[in-house]
User: Fold TetR family transcriptional regulator from Streptomyces caeruleatus.
Amino acid sequence: MGRRYDPERRQRIIDAAIRVVGEKGIAGLSHRTVAAEADVPLGSTTYHFKTLDDLLVAALRQANEGFAKVIASRGGLEDPGADLAVELAGWMGEWLAGDRTGVELEYELYLAALRRPALRPVAAEWARDLADRLSCRTDAVTARALVALLDGICLQVLLTEVPYDEEYAREVLARVIP
Amino acid sequence: MGRRYDPERRQRIIDAAIRVVGEKGIAGLSHRTVAAEADVPLGSTTYHFKTLDDLLVAALRQANEGFAKVIASRGGLEDPGADLAVELAGWMGEWLAGDRTGVELEYELYLAALRRPALRPVAAEWARDLADRLSCRTDAVTARALVALLDGICLQVLLTEVPYDEEYAREVLARVIP
DNA sequence: CAACGTTGTGTACGCTCGTACATATGGGAT
DNA sequence: ATCCCATATGTACGAGCGTACACAACGTTG
Assistant:
């Protein structure tokens, strides 16, 4: 038979799932579509991931890791001298101005936790990680509030197609920081 | 043949769609499931709503109207003497403590706009309406920021299963209000 | 080298789905 | 009274779905 003992098979399936969700959304994700995208037979996807939720958990976790890497590479928010509101607003603008598919992918996976309890631990982990990262620069309550506000602002842009206004974001973020 | 000339047929289909989404989520919505829930034949749903997006638009719009009514009935946020942050935090706590199905329904319909452009105008309308309502009590920038923060706080509660902390909400909402 | 268990593969079953379409019905225009 | 057309209905088709399962390949272990 065909290719055997492919140790990265599982990883390639996750990558394919992320591409599929990015292109067609979670609604377009099925064992068959990932199989086709990853160029593996159907049985291979059902073997590695018994349910689609399992696959989604793996995909969301990997997407989060990629996102964390992007943050880290961009200075990492560690400079205690810089203005945090300015930094966050700039970073959000950069993110929203970039590849829209990637942004939608992240948020779709994140928001899917609303109806899929299996994804909630991963979503919670992600929110906590970001808050922890901000905690180096401010207190815990403010960090949580900043995460909430960032999410809310991003959602307004994504859901209502109102263009991102960096000055507005800077202004309201600054108000939350004591 | 069976029942004819049912002028409320369309409305009953929308009501059924809302019930279906509330119980099984958008993923469980189909012409067939709505037809069964509304007790009408399959052809009736496809006749009144050519696509599921059409049906979702109608459902989201109706859900928004119901929500607006709830706000209006609860004092309406019009009293200029009351503390706005306290009012909003209390109202959010009441909403999140109530029927979880209803809360999830609202947010699922709202967030679905991320991947369904057809829903975006309705989502935008809803966000604008709420901001307008708040504008009686504060300036436009603050109103928008409050909507974003409310959304972000609700999402944290819904996605991560962290219990709602009204005191925290009051505190950070107050910071946004100049 | 033989038995075994993990990993990979192909296929088929039963189900639900959106869609199309032929047909029926009766209110309103003429 | 007659015709037209929006409304309503039932059925059938093809596609895609999750799942199950028998079988193939090969590293590991004894």
Q: What stands out?
A: Residues 1, 4-5, 30-33, 46, 51-52 of chain B lie near DNA strand C (CB under 10 Å from a C1').
